[in-house]
Amino acid sequence: MDAGNEILATVVTVSSEIYSGQDPNRAGPLARDLLGRHGVRTKLVVAPDDRESISSAVAAAISSGARIVITCGGTGIGPADVTVDAVVPMLAYQMPGICEEVRRRGALSVASALVSRAVAGVVLEAPAPVFVLTSPGSSGGVRDAIEVVGPLLGHIIAQLDGAGHY
Questions:
Q1: Residue 132's domain is classified under what CATH number?
Q2: Which residues contact 42 (CB under 8 A, 6 or more apart)?
Q3: FRET label pair with 118: which of 22, 87, 135, 142, CA 20 to 30 Å apart?
């Protein structure tokens, strides 16, 4: 992909421990590196585990021109797992096949991948439509998510921009 067609993304790592500096951010840099293999330029952001902070981070990413926003963390069923709850109200529609495939691939290695509530979808209230994916926060979950969505990102953005089907 040439620089004129470069896709811009923001990866939002969701973790109060990482936000406060107690833990290192492994998921965000991994996602950035994996997205880079698909020609995506990526900015990293960290947000604590609360709905307002997460939705604000996603909205700020969209306002700054990201066409792709990937969150890492907060997709499980624990009390602090609120990423999906923060993101779903922002979506005009969901793309369930993407997360179904991420869960399927993850379950081949770790059965608990099926417990993920991750979602993918599109935000339309922006200068241009934005693809949003909530990814698990584990390295394996991030890897599975980018392996599924990475090869599709050019097609997804082209479709959001009105390209014909190919």
A1: 3.40.980.10
A2: 8, 9, 10, 11, 31, 32, 35, 36
A3: 22
Report the domain count for the chain.
Answer: 1
* 3 state DSSP class of 12: strand
Q: What was the pLDDT predicted at 125? A: 78
Q: What angle do CA 125, 132, 92 make, to 5 degrees?
A: 40
Q: How far apart are CA 112 and CA 52, in angstroms?
A: 27
Q: Do the domain assignments include residue 100?
A: yes
Is the confidence at residue 6, as pLDDT, over 90? Answer: no
Answer whether residue 114 is part of any domain.
yes
pLDDT in tens, 105-130: 999 999 999 999 999 999 997 789 99
In a domain, 166, yes or no: no
- What pLDDT sits at residue 64? 95
165 located within any domain: no
Cβ-based neighbours of 5, under 8 Å, separated by 6 or more = none
Domain residues for the domain of 120 are: 3-160
CA dist., res. 124 & res. 147, Å (int):
25
